[in-house]
Design brief:
With 188 residues, this protein is α+β, with helices and mostly antiparallel strands. It has four helices and six strands. A four-stranded antiparallel β-sheet has the order 3-4-6-5, with helices on one face. The protein has a two-stranded antiparallel ribbon with strand order 1-2. Strand 1 and strand 2 form a beta hairpin. Helix 1 packs antiparallel against helix 3 and helix 3 runs antiparallel to helix 4.
Length: 188
């Protein structure tokens, strides 16, 4: 038997995880200031295994326009450079044999708009994920209603609760997306 609270709790948790995933993704979009999160989840081919960069190197931001990546194993520098070049960051790595330096050039207006479109797409993907979770929860209530586990009124009230939760979390997704878009478009 499906309980309303269990389904709502599950939907709430899954929706919040979708929002957390969006936040993590948006941190990797460049805004003009250097931030180690920009590259820390970049996958580097490390001895045949795709490994996040932050697991094989330390990443620091000594100033607003530079990132320094210092691998613990100097033999992986070439692979780090290849991963950066393959990424959608649009950055060219420089290495001196010990560290990889990434100089962040000022963003052009065209690149800012391209990044804003990327933010919009990821925000829309998060909205879709939240709505998909809503659909799953509503389907569970409708199934319970059809199987006579809950009354039509109970089912309708539960569906309204899911809809309110969805609207609140979609508004949160929109706010996160708009804030990042402003950051990208307004960053100097």
């Amino acid at each position: 038997m499906v309980t309303v609270n269990a389904v709502l709790s599950d939907a709430d948790g899954r929706m919040k995880k979708a929002i957390e995933a969006l936040s993590r993704e948006l941190v990797t979009i460049r805004t003009g200031r250097s931030n180690p999160a920009l590259v820390e989840h970049l996958l580097v081919e490390y001895y045949g295994t795709p490994t996040p960069l932050n697991q094989i190197a330390s990443i620091t931001a000594p100033d607003a326009r530079m990132l320094i990546i210092q691998p613990w194993d100097k033999g992986v520098i070439g692979m780090i450079e290849k991963a950066i070049l393959r990424s959608e960051l649009g950055l060219t790595p420089n290495n001196d044999g010990a560290v990889v330096r990434l100089t962040l050039p000022p963003l052009t207006e065209e690149r800012r708009h391209e990044l804003a479109r990327m933010v919009s797409k990821r925000t829309e993907d998060a909205r879709i994920a939240v709505r998909s979770i809503r659909r799953d929860a509503i389907d569970k209530f409708r199934t319970s209603e059809r199987e006579k586990e809950m009354s039509q009124d109970e089912s309708r009230r539960a569906q309204e609760q899911v809809q309110k939760l969805t609207e609140a979390l979609v508004a949160q997704v929109d706010a996160i997306g708009k804030a990042k878009e402003r950051e990208v478009l307004g960053a100097a």
